[in-house]
Amino acid sequence: MRKKGILSALVLLAFHVSSLGQFRVAFVAGAHSSSVQESNDLPNWNSIKGYYTPRTGFHGGLLAELPFSPKSRFFLQPGVLITNKGRKYAQSTNIPDPLVERFDSTQYLNYIDVPVNLVVKFPLAAKVKLVLGAGPYASFFFNGKETSDKFYTNGDFNSYENTNLSVGNGPGKYKTFDYGVNGLIGLEFGRVLLTANYSRGLGDFYQSDQYNGHFNHQVIGGTLGVFLGKPVKLEEKPKDRDKDGIPDKDDQCPDQPGTALTHGCPDRDGDGIADKDDKCPAVAGLAKYNGCPVPDSDGDGVNDELDKCPGVKGLAKYNGCPIPDTDGDGINDEEDKCPTVAGSPKYNGCPIPDSDGDGVNDEEDKCPKTKGSPENGGCPIIQKEIVEKVNYAARRIQFEFAKATILPSTHQVLDEVVKILQQNPSLTLTIEGHTSNHGDYQANMKLSQDRADHVRAYFESKGIDASRLKAIGYGPTRPLTTGKTEAEQARNRRVELRLSNQ
Protein backbone atom coordinates (compact mmCIF):
# COMPACT_ATOMS: atom_id res chain seq x y z
CA MET A 1 0.00 0.00 0.00
CA ARG A 2 2.86 2.37 0.80
CA LYS A 3 4.44 1.88 -2.65
CA LYS A 4 1.06 2.44 -4.34
CA GLY A 5 0.58 5.65 -2.35
CA ILE A 6 3.98 7.02 -3.37
CA LEU A 7 3.35 6.14 -7.03
CA SER A 8 -0.10 7.80 -6.97
CA ALA A 9 1.37 10.95 -5.42
CA LEU A 10 4.07 11.15 -8.09
CA VAL A 11 1.51 10.72 -10.87
CA LEU A 12 -0.72 13.47 -9.43
CA LEU A 13 2.29 15.75 -9.01
CA ALA A 14 3.34 15.16 -12.63
CA PHE A 15 -0.15 16.08 -13.88
CA HIS A 16 -0.24 19.17 -11.68
CA VAL A 17 3.17 20.36 -12.89
CA SER A 18 2.40 19.67 -16.54
CA SER A 19 -0.71 21.83 -16.30
CA LEU A 20 1.22 24.82 -15.00
CA GLY A 21 4.47 25.20 -16.86
CA GLN A 22 6.67 23.71 -19.54
CA PHE A 23 8.24 20.31 -20.04
CA ARG A 24 11.04 18.95 -22.21
CA VAL A 25 12.76 15.64 -22.93
CA ALA A 26 16.46 14.77 -23.20
CA PHE A 27 18.57 11.88 -24.44
CA VAL A 28 21.14 11.03 -21.75
CA ALA A 29 24.14 8.69 -21.68
CA GLY A 30 27.29 8.21 -19.67
CA ALA A 31 29.83 5.94 -18.06
CA HIS A 32 30.11 4.85 -14.45
CA SER A 33 31.84 2.66 -11.90
CA SER A 34 29.59 -0.07 -10.50
CA SER A 35 30.21 -2.03 -7.31
CA VAL A 36 28.35 -4.24 -4.85
CA GLN A 37 28.19 -3.28 -1.19
CA GLU A 38 28.17 -6.66 0.55
CA SER A 39 27.94 -7.64 4.22
CA ASN A 40 27.73 -11.24 5.42
CA ASP A 41 28.41 -13.70 8.22
CA LEU A 42 31.54 -15.27 6.68
CA PRO A 43 34.29 -15.44 9.34
CA ASN A 44 37.03 -14.66 6.81
CA TRP A 45 35.16 -11.91 4.93
CA ASN A 46 37.70 -9.19 5.84
CA SER A 47 40.43 -11.18 4.08
CA ILE A 48 38.23 -11.86 1.03
CA LYS A 49 36.41 -8.60 0.31
CA GLY A 50 39.59 -6.90 -0.92
CA TYR A 51 39.53 -9.15 -3.98
CA TYR A 52 36.25 -7.53 -5.11
CA THR A 53 36.60 -4.35 -7.16
CA PRO A 54 34.22 -2.12 -9.19
CA ARG A 55 33.61 -2.66 -12.90
CA THR A 56 33.12 -0.04 -15.57
CA GLY A 57 29.65 0.21 -17.11
CA PHE A 58 27.48 2.47 -19.19
CA HIS A 59 24.01 3.90 -18.96
CA GLY A 60 21.66 5.71 -21.29
CA GLY A 61 18.04 6.52 -21.95
CA LEU A 62 15.48 9.30 -21.71
CA LEU A 63 14.96 12.04 -19.13
CA ALA A 64 11.88 14.27 -18.79
CA GLU A 65 11.85 17.61 -17.00
CA LEU A 66 8.72 19.21 -15.56
CA PRO A 67 8.84 22.55 -13.65
CA PHE A 68 6.61 23.22 -10.66
CA SER A 69 5.65 26.58 -12.16
CA PRO A 70 6.79 28.70 -15.14
CA LYS A 71 9.31 30.60 -12.97
CA SER A 72 10.17 27.91 -10.42
CA ARG A 73 13.72 26.75 -9.71
CA PHE A 74 12.38 23.33 -8.75
CA PHE A 75 11.82 20.59 -11.32
CA LEU A 76 10.64 16.99 -11.35
CA GLN A 77 12.94 14.79 -13.45
CA PRO A 78 11.63 11.25 -14.08
CA GLY A 79 13.69 9.04 -16.39
CA VAL A 80 14.06 5.61 -17.96
CA LEU A 81 17.66 4.32 -18.24
CA ILE A 82 19.38 1.11 -19.24
CA THR A 83 22.20 0.64 -16.71
CA ASN A 84 25.09 -1.85 -16.49
CA LYS A 85 25.79 -2.99 -12.93
CA GLY A 86 27.84 -5.67 -11.16
CA ARG A 87 31.43 -6.05 -9.94
CA LYS A 88 34.78 -7.79 -10.53
CA TYR A 89 36.73 -10.37 -8.53
CA ALA A 90 40.47 -11.03 -8.94
CA GLN A 91 42.61 -13.27 -6.70
CA SER A 92 46.25 -14.18 -7.27
CA THR A 93 47.33 -14.95 -3.70
CA ASN A 94 46.12 -17.29 -0.96
CA ILE A 95 44.41 -19.55 -3.53
CA PRO A 96 43.60 -22.94 -1.93
CA ASP A 97 44.38 -24.87 -5.13
CA PRO A 98 48.19 -24.96 -5.64
CA LEU A 99 47.69 -25.60 -9.36
CA VAL A 100 45.82 -22.30 -9.84
CA GLU A 101 47.94 -19.14 -10.23
CA ARG A 102 45.12 -16.60 -10.61
CA PHE A 103 41.32 -16.53 -10.62
CA ASP A 104 39.33 -13.67 -12.23
CA SER A 105 35.56 -13.26 -12.54
CA THR A 106 33.16 -10.50 -13.62
CA GLN A 107 29.48 -10.00 -12.90
CA TYR A 108 27.51 -8.27 -15.67
CA LEU A 109 23.98 -7.26 -14.61
CA ASN A 110 21.74 -5.12 -16.80
CA TYR A 111 18.79 -3.16 -15.42
CA ILE A 112 16.12 -0.74 -16.52
CA ASP A 113 16.29 2.05 -13.94
CA VAL A 114 13.41 4.46 -13.37
CA PRO A 115 14.68 7.39 -11.26
CA VAL A 116 12.38 10.18 -10.08
CA ASN A 117 14.47 13.15 -8.88
CA LEU A 118 13.57 16.48 -7.36
CA VAL A 119 15.98 19.00 -8.93
CA VAL A 120 16.81 22.60 -8.06
CA LYS A 121 18.75 24.95 -10.40
CA PHE A 122 20.86 28.01 -9.48
CA PRO A 123 21.93 30.52 -12.19
CA LEU A 124 25.73 30.98 -12.41
CA ALA A 125 26.11 32.88 -15.69
CA ALA A 126 24.28 33.46 -18.95
CA LYS A 127 22.74 30.08 -19.93
CA VAL A 128 24.78 28.32 -17.21
CA LYS A 129 23.09 26.82 -14.15
CA LEU A 130 24.19 24.71 -11.20
CA VAL A 131 21.98 21.63 -10.92
CA LEU A 132 21.39 19.68 -7.68
CA GLY A 133 18.98 16.76 -7.32
CA ALA A 134 18.05 13.60 -5.48
CA GLY A 135 15.24 11.08 -5.24
CA PRO A 136 14.25 7.40 -5.29
CA TYR A 137 14.57 4.94 -8.13
CA ALA A 138 13.04 1.61 -9.12
CA SER A 139 15.13 -0.94 -10.98
CA PHE A 140 14.07 -3.90 -13.13
CA PHE A 141 16.56 -6.70 -13.98
CA PHE A 142 16.31 -7.94 -17.58
CA ASN A 143 19.50 -9.89 -18.37
CA GLY A 144 23.07 -10.55 -17.36
CA LYS A 145 25.95 -13.02 -17.25
CA GLU A 146 28.83 -14.21 -15.06
CA THR A 147 32.29 -14.93 -16.46
CA SER A 148 35.31 -16.50 -14.78
CA ASP A 149 38.90 -17.21 -15.88
CA LYS A 150 41.44 -19.52 -14.25
CA PHE A 151 45.15 -19.29 -14.95
CA TYR A 152 47.12 -22.40 -13.96
CA THR A 153 50.74 -22.55 -12.91
CA ASN A 154 51.56 -24.73 -15.91
CA GLY A 155 50.40 -21.99 -18.29
CA ASP A 156 46.96 -23.43 -19.02
CA PHE A 157 43.95 -21.16 -19.18
CA ASN A 158 40.31 -22.00 -18.41
CA SER A 159 37.34 -19.74 -19.17
CA TYR A 160 33.68 -20.15 -18.15
CA GLU A 161 30.60 -18.06 -18.95
CA ASN A 162 27.10 -18.35 -17.49
CA THR A 163 24.47 -16.45 -19.50
CA ASN A 164 21.48 -18.19 -17.95
CA LEU A 165 21.26 -16.53 -14.54
CA SER A 166 18.60 -17.80 -12.14
CA VAL A 167 15.95 -15.12 -11.60
CA GLY A 168 13.37 -14.87 -8.80
CA ASN A 169 13.15 -14.97 -5.04
CA GLY A 170 15.25 -17.63 -3.35
CA PRO A 171 18.82 -18.84 -2.78
CA GLY A 172 21.12 -18.38 -5.77
CA LYS A 173 18.67 -16.14 -7.64
CA TYR A 174 18.68 -12.50 -8.82
CA LYS A 175 15.57 -10.53 -7.98
CA THR A 176 13.72 -8.92 -10.88
CA PHE A 177 12.93 -5.78 -8.84
CA ASP A 178 15.28 -3.54 -6.91
CA TYR A 179 15.04 -0.03 -5.48
CA GLY A 180 17.21 2.65 -3.94
CA VAL A 181 18.12 6.33 -3.84
CA ASN A 182 20.22 8.50 -6.11
CA GLY A 183 21.64 12.00 -6.29
CA LEU A 184 23.22 14.28 -8.88
CA ILE A 185 25.22 17.50 -9.17
CA GLY A 186 26.26 19.24 -12.34
CA LEU A 187 25.93 22.07 -14.81
CA GLU A 188 23.37 22.96 -17.45
CA PHE A 189 24.50 24.84 -20.57
CA GLY A 190 21.33 25.74 -22.48
CA ARG A 191 20.17 22.43 -23.89
CA VAL A 192 23.24 20.48 -22.67
CA LEU A 193 23.27 18.85 -19.23
CA LEU A 194 26.47 17.49 -17.61
CA THR A 195 26.17 15.83 -14.19
CA ALA A 196 27.97 13.57 -11.74
CA ASN A 197 25.69 10.83 -10.43
CA TYR A 198 25.54 8.53 -7.42
CA SER A 199 23.05 5.76 -6.64
CA ARG A 200 22.78 3.23 -3.85
CA GLY A 201 20.46 0.25 -3.72
CA LEU A 202 18.40 -0.24 -0.57
CA GLY A 203 17.15 -3.74 -1.33
CA ASP A 204 19.02 -7.03 -1.62
CA PHE A 205 19.17 -7.70 -5.37
CA TYR A 206 20.58 -11.22 -4.82
CA GLN A 207 20.34 -14.05 -2.25
CA SER A 208 23.35 -16.32 -1.84
CA ASP A 209 22.82 -20.06 -1.61
CA GLN A 210 26.14 -20.47 0.24
CA TYR A 211 25.87 -18.05 3.18
CA ASN A 212 23.78 -15.29 4.72
CA GLY A 213 24.48 -11.82 3.45
CA HIS A 214 23.22 -8.52 2.05
CA PHE A 215 23.95 -7.35 -1.52
CA ASN A 216 23.32 -3.74 -2.58
CA HIS A 217 24.24 -1.99 -5.84
CA GLN A 218 26.33 1.19 -5.83
CA VAL A 219 26.98 3.29 -8.96
CA ILE A 220 29.17 6.39 -9.31
CA GLY A 221 29.53 8.05 -12.71
CA GLY A 222 28.92 10.92 -15.07
CA THR A 223 26.08 11.71 -17.48
CA LEU A 224 25.81 13.86 -20.61
CA GLY A 225 22.34 14.88 -21.71
CA VAL A 226 20.92 16.87 -24.63
CA PHE A 227 17.40 18.27 -24.44
CA LEU A 228 15.41 18.00 -27.67
CA GLY A 229 14.09 21.15 -29.33
CA LYS A 230 12.58 24.01 -27.45
CA PRO A 231 10.49 23.54 -24.31
CA VAL A 232 6.86 22.82 -25.13
CA LYS A 233 4.32 25.19 -23.63
CA LEU A 234 1.49 23.33 -22.00
CA GLU A 235 -1.76 25.25 -22.25
CA GLU A 236 -4.01 25.78 -19.28
CA LYS A 237 -7.24 23.83 -19.34
CA PRO A 238 -10.17 25.91 -20.64
CA LYS A 239 -13.14 26.51 -18.38
CA ASP A 240 -15.76 23.79 -18.42
CA ARG A 241 -18.50 24.39 -15.81
CA ASP A 242 -20.44 21.17 -16.45
CA LYS A 243 -17.27 19.01 -16.70
CA ASP A 244 -18.37 17.34 -19.95
CA GLY A 245 -15.03 17.89 -21.71
CA ILE A 246 -16.37 20.67 -23.96
CA PRO A 247 -15.08 24.21 -23.20
CA ASP A 248 -17.75 26.69 -22.16
CA LYS A 249 -16.97 28.86 -25.19
CA ASP A 250 -18.02 25.97 -27.48
CA ASP A 251 -20.77 24.53 -25.24
CA GLN A 252 -24.36 25.36 -26.23
CA CYS A 253 -25.50 24.03 -22.84
CA PRO A 254 -22.64 25.07 -20.51
CA ASP A 255 -24.51 24.10 -17.30
CA GLN A 256 -25.68 20.65 -18.47
CA PRO A 257 -23.28 17.78 -19.31
CA GLY A 258 -23.56 16.75 -22.92
CA THR A 259 -21.62 15.33 -25.87
CA ALA A 260 -19.41 16.80 -28.56
CA LEU A 261 -21.85 15.61 -31.22
CA THR A 262 -24.64 17.68 -29.68
CA HIS A 263 -22.35 20.67 -28.98
CA GLY A 264 -22.33 20.07 -25.23
CA CYS A 265 -26.08 19.54 -24.78
CA PRO A 266 -27.69 16.47 -23.14
CA ASP A 267 -28.58 13.48 -25.30
CA ARG A 268 -30.29 10.88 -23.10
CA ASP A 269 -30.81 8.31 -25.84
CA GLY A 270 -27.32 8.82 -27.34
CA ASP A 271 -28.58 9.17 -30.88
CA GLY A 272 -26.55 12.31 -31.60
CA ILE A 273 -29.60 14.59 -31.45
CA ALA A 274 -29.80 16.99 -28.51
CA ASP A 275 -32.77 16.41 -26.20
CA LYS A 276 -33.97 19.96 -26.90
CA ASP A 277 -34.34 19.03 -30.60
CA ASP A 278 -35.33 15.33 -30.12
CA LYS A 279 -39.02 14.40 -30.44
CA CYS A 280 -38.22 11.00 -28.87
CA PRO A 281 -35.55 12.00 -26.29
CA ALA A 282 -35.77 8.68 -24.41
CA VAL A 283 -35.51 6.46 -27.52
CA ALA A 284 -32.58 6.46 -29.94
CA GLY A 285 -33.59 7.52 -33.42
CA LEU A 286 -32.43 9.25 -36.58
CA ALA A 287 -32.25 12.87 -37.61
CA LYS A 288 -34.51 12.15 -40.59
CA TYR A 289 -37.17 11.06 -38.08
CA ASN A 290 -36.44 14.04 -35.74
CA GLY A 291 -34.78 11.72 -33.25
CA CYS A 292 -37.38 8.94 -33.35
CA PRO A 293 -36.52 5.38 -34.40
CA VAL A 294 -37.19 3.81 -37.80
CA PRO A 295 -40.08 1.28 -37.77
CA ASP A 296 -39.18 -2.30 -36.79
CA SER A 297 -41.87 -4.61 -38.19
CA ASP A 298 -40.57 -7.87 -36.64
CA GLY A 299 -39.57 -6.28 -33.33
CA ASP A 300 -36.04 -7.64 -33.38
CA GLY A 301 -34.35 -4.28 -32.67
CA VAL A 302 -33.19 -3.81 -36.28
CA ASN A 303 -35.13 -1.14 -38.11
CA ASP A 304 -36.72 -1.97 -41.43
CA GLU A 305 -34.23 0.17 -43.37
CA LEU A 306 -31.36 -2.09 -42.25
CA ASP A 307 -33.21 -5.41 -41.73
CA LYS A 308 -32.51 -7.98 -44.48
CA CYS A 309 -35.18 -10.21 -42.97
CA PRO A 310 -37.84 -7.65 -41.97
CA GLY A 311 -40.57 -10.30 -41.63
CA VAL A 312 -38.51 -12.70 -39.44
CA LYS A 313 -37.19 -11.85 -35.98
CA GLY A 314 -33.40 -11.99 -35.91
CA LEU A 315 -30.32 -10.23 -34.50
CA ALA A 316 -28.49 -7.06 -35.44
CA LYS A 317 -25.29 -9.12 -35.84
CA TYR A 318 -26.89 -10.80 -38.86
CA ASN A 319 -28.62 -7.68 -40.20
CA GLY A 320 -31.94 -8.72 -38.68
CA CYS A 321 -31.82 -12.38 -39.77
CA PRO A 322 -31.68 -15.40 -37.41
CA ILE A 323 -28.33 -17.01 -36.53
CA PRO A 324 -27.78 -20.24 -38.48
CA ASP A 325 -26.17 -22.76 -36.11
CA THR A 326 -27.16 -26.35 -36.90
CA ASP A 327 -25.09 -28.09 -34.22
CA GLY A 328 -25.81 -25.50 -31.52
CA ASP A 329 -22.16 -24.91 -30.65
CA GLY A 330 -22.44 -21.11 -30.89
CA ILE A 331 -20.63 -20.92 -34.25
CA ASN A 332 -22.78 -20.04 -37.25
CA ASP A 333 -22.79 -22.47 -40.17
CA GLU A 334 -20.94 -20.05 -42.47
CA GLU A 335 -17.89 -20.20 -40.19
CA ASP A 336 -18.35 -23.76 -38.81
CA LYS A 337 -16.13 -26.34 -40.56
CA CYS A 338 -18.07 -29.11 -38.77
CA PRO A 339 -21.61 -27.66 -38.92
CA THR A 340 -23.34 -30.93 -37.86
CA VAL A 341 -20.99 -31.74 -34.93
CA ALA A 342 -20.69 -29.49 -31.87
CA GLY A 343 -17.16 -28.22 -31.46
CA SER A 344 -14.93 -25.40 -30.23
CA PRO A 345 -14.26 -21.92 -31.65
CA LYS A 346 -10.53 -22.66 -31.43
CA TYR A 347 -10.97 -25.42 -34.02
CA ASN A 348 -13.47 -23.52 -36.19
CA GLY A 349 -16.44 -25.40 -34.77
CA CYS A 350 -14.88 -28.88 -34.83
CA PRO A 351 -14.15 -31.05 -31.74
CA ILE A 352 -10.65 -31.05 -30.25
CA PRO A 353 -8.61 -33.57 -32.34
CA ASP A 354 -6.99 -36.74 -30.97
CA SER A 355 -4.29 -37.42 -33.58
CA ASP A 356 -3.00 -40.70 -32.13
CA GLY A 357 -6.43 -42.03 -31.07
CA ASP A 358 -5.39 -42.84 -27.50
CA GLY A 359 -8.37 -41.13 -25.86
CA VAL A 360 -6.36 -38.03 -24.86
CA ASN A 361 -7.07 -34.95 -26.98
CA ASP A 362 -4.14 -33.10 -28.54
CA GLU A 363 -4.43 -30.12 -26.16
CA GLU A 364 -3.80 -32.40 -23.16
CA ASP A 365 -1.64 -35.05 -24.89
CA LYS A 366 2.10 -34.60 -24.16
CA CYS A 367 2.83 -37.11 -26.99
CA PRO A 368 0.12 -36.20 -29.54
CA LYS A 369 1.69 -38.23 -32.36
CA THR A 370 2.31 -41.42 -30.31
CA LYS A 371 -0.43 -43.59 -28.82
CA GLY A 372 -0.02 -43.71 -25.08
CA SER A 373 -1.80 -43.91 -21.76
CA PRO A 374 -4.11 -41.30 -20.19
CA GLU A 375 -2.37 -41.95 -16.87
CA ASN A 376 0.94 -40.80 -18.42
CA GLY A 377 -0.43 -37.69 -20.12
CA GLY A 378 -0.97 -39.49 -23.43
CA CYS A 379 2.61 -40.82 -23.62
CA PRO A 380 3.64 -44.49 -23.47
CA ILE A 381 4.61 -45.70 -19.99
CA ILE A 382 8.31 -46.55 -19.75
CA GLN A 383 8.78 -50.12 -18.58
CA LYS A 384 9.92 -50.38 -14.96
CA GLU A 385 12.60 -52.88 -15.99
CA ILE A 386 14.17 -50.36 -18.43
CA VAL A 387 14.21 -47.58 -15.79
CA GLU A 388 15.89 -49.89 -13.27
CA LYS A 389 18.55 -50.95 -15.80
CA VAL A 390 19.40 -47.34 -16.63
CA ASN A 391 19.53 -46.35 -12.94
CA TYR A 392 21.82 -49.32 -12.21
CA ALA A 393 24.10 -48.33 -15.10
CA ALA A 394 24.25 -44.72 -13.83
CA ARG A 395 25.56 -45.86 -10.44
CA ARG A 396 28.47 -47.66 -12.17
CA ILE A 397 29.73 -44.68 -14.22
CA GLN A 398 33.26 -43.71 -13.15
CA PHE A 399 35.73 -40.96 -14.14
CA GLU A 400 39.38 -40.22 -13.56
CA PHE A 401 39.93 -38.41 -10.27
CA ALA A 402 38.91 -34.72 -10.47
CA LYS A 403 38.58 -35.02 -14.28
CA ALA A 404 35.84 -35.56 -16.83
CA THR A 405 37.64 -38.47 -18.54
CA ILE A 406 35.47 -41.62 -18.52
CA LEU A 407 37.31 -44.72 -17.24
CA PRO A 408 37.49 -47.55 -19.80
CA SER A 409 35.70 -49.86 -17.38
CA THR A 410 32.63 -47.63 -17.74
CA HIS A 411 32.31 -48.11 -21.50
CA GLN A 412 30.60 -51.47 -21.09
CA VAL A 413 28.13 -49.88 -18.65
CA LEU A 414 27.33 -47.03 -21.08
CA ASP A 415 26.97 -49.50 -23.98
CA GLU A 416 24.12 -51.14 -22.06
CA VAL A 417 22.31 -47.79 -22.00
CA VAL A 418 23.07 -47.28 -25.72
CA LYS A 419 21.41 -50.61 -26.46
CA ILE A 420 18.29 -49.57 -24.52
CA LEU A 421 18.09 -46.24 -26.41
CA GLN A 422 18.53 -48.02 -29.76
CA GLN A 423 15.73 -50.44 -28.92
CA ASN A 424 13.44 -47.64 -27.75
CA PRO A 425 13.77 -44.75 -30.27
CA SER A 426 10.96 -42.75 -28.61
CA LEU A 427 12.94 -42.32 -25.39
CA THR A 428 15.06 -39.27 -24.56
CA LEU A 429 17.76 -39.07 -21.90
CA THR A 430 18.84 -36.31 -19.52
CA ILE A 431 22.38 -36.70 -18.15
CA GLU A 432 22.90 -34.93 -14.83
CA GLY A 433 26.39 -34.30 -13.39
CA HIS A 434 26.78 -33.80 -9.64
CA THR A 435 29.77 -33.13 -7.32
CA SER A 436 30.42 -32.78 -3.60
CA ASN A 437 30.88 -29.32 -2.10
CA HIS A 438 34.63 -29.79 -1.61
CA GLY A 439 36.77 -27.27 -3.47
CA ASP A 440 35.89 -24.19 -5.53
CA TYR A 441 32.22 -23.77 -6.38
CA GLN A 442 32.76 -22.62 -9.99
CA ALA A 443 35.25 -25.45 -10.58
CA ASN A 444 32.71 -27.99 -9.30
CA MET A 445 30.02 -26.52 -11.55
CA LYS A 446 32.33 -26.82 -14.56
CA LEU A 447 33.48 -30.35 -13.65
CA SER A 448 29.88 -31.58 -13.30
CA GLN A 449 28.96 -30.04 -16.70
CA ASP A 450 32.10 -31.46 -18.37
CA ARG A 451 31.35 -34.96 -17.04
CA ALA A 452 27.74 -34.80 -18.22
CA ASP A 453 28.97 -33.54 -21.64
CA HIS A 454 31.49 -36.41 -21.92
CA VAL A 455 28.78 -39.00 -21.24
CA ARG A 456 26.54 -37.34 -23.82
CA ALA A 457 29.42 -37.31 -26.33
CA TYR A 458 29.97 -41.04 -25.74
CA PHE A 459 26.32 -41.78 -26.53
CA GLU A 460 26.50 -39.61 -29.67
CA SER A 461 29.64 -41.51 -30.77
CA LYS A 462 27.57 -44.69 -30.60
CA GLY A 463 24.98 -43.30 -33.00
CA ILE A 464 22.42 -41.84 -30.58
CA ASP A 465 20.92 -38.68 -32.10
CA ALA A 466 21.94 -35.50 -30.25
CA SER A 467 18.31 -34.29 -30.17
CA ARG A 468 17.52 -37.16 -27.78
CA LEU A 469 20.25 -36.18 -25.31
CA LYS A 470 20.55 -33.35 -22.79
CA ALA A 471 23.48 -32.73 -20.42
CA ILE A 472 23.19 -30.59 -17.26
CA GLY A 473 25.85 -29.90 -14.63
CA TYR A 474 24.45 -29.16 -11.17
CA GLY A 475 27.76 -29.13 -9.30
CA PRO A 476 27.20 -29.30 -5.53
CA THR A 477 23.70 -27.77 -5.64
CA ARG A 478 21.76 -31.07 -5.37
CA PRO A 479 23.52 -33.24 -2.75
CA LEU A 480 22.14 -36.62 -1.72
CA THR A 481 23.58 -36.13 1.77
CA THR A 482 24.72 -33.13 3.77
CA GLY A 483 27.21 -35.22 5.78
CA LYS A 484 30.87 -34.22 5.85
CA THR A 485 32.58 -37.63 5.90
CA GLU A 486 34.38 -38.77 2.76
CA ALA A 487 31.94 -41.65 2.32
CA GLU A 488 28.96 -39.32 2.50
CA GLN A 489 30.55 -36.79 0.16
CA ALA A 490 31.42 -39.60 -2.29
CA ARG A 491 27.70 -40.29 -2.68
CA ASN A 492 27.28 -36.73 -3.91
CA ARG A 493 29.87 -37.23 -6.70
CA ARG A 494 27.71 -39.02 -9.25
CA VAL A 495 26.02 -39.02 -12.67
CA GLU A 496 22.27 -39.59 -12.90
CA LEU A 497 20.47 -40.72 -16.08
CA ARG A 498 16.80 -39.77 -16.43
CA LEU A 499 14.62 -41.32 -19.15
CA SER A 500 11.62 -39.59 -20.68
CA ASN A 501 9.27 -40.09 -23.61
CA GLN A 502 7.51 -36.69 -23.32
Give a short overview.
The protein has 502 residues and is of the alpha+beta class. It has helices at residues 2-18, 45-48, 384-395, 408-423, 441-461, 486-492, and strands spanning 22-40, 52-53, 55-67, 74-91, 100-125, 128-152, 157-162, 173-174, 177-189, 192-201, 206-207, 213-227, 232-233, 428-434, 469-475, 494-500.
Average predicted confidence as pLDDT: 87
Largest sheet: 8 strands, antiparallel, barrel
Secondary structure: number of strands: 16
Which class do the helix and strand fractions yield? alpha+beta
| Total number of helices | 6
Element-by-element helix/strand order: HEHEEEEEEEEEEEEHHEHEHE
Distance between the termini: 44 Å
Strand arrangement within the widest β-sheet reads 1-3-4-5-6-9-10-12
| Rg estimate, integer Å | 35 Å
Which consecutive residue ranges, at least 5 long each, have pLDDT under 50? Answer: 1-21
Globular, elongated, flat, extended or rod-shaped: what is the shape? Answer: flat
Helix content: 10-25%
What does this structure look like?
This protein has 502 residues and is α+β, with helices and mostly antiparallel strands. Helix content is 15%, strand content 35%. The chain has an 8-stranded antiparallel beta barrel with strand order 1-3-4-5-6-9-10-12. Strands 15-14-16 form a 3-stranded mixed beta sheet. A hairpin with an 8-residue loop joins strand 4 (74-91) and strand 5. The relative contact order is 0.07.
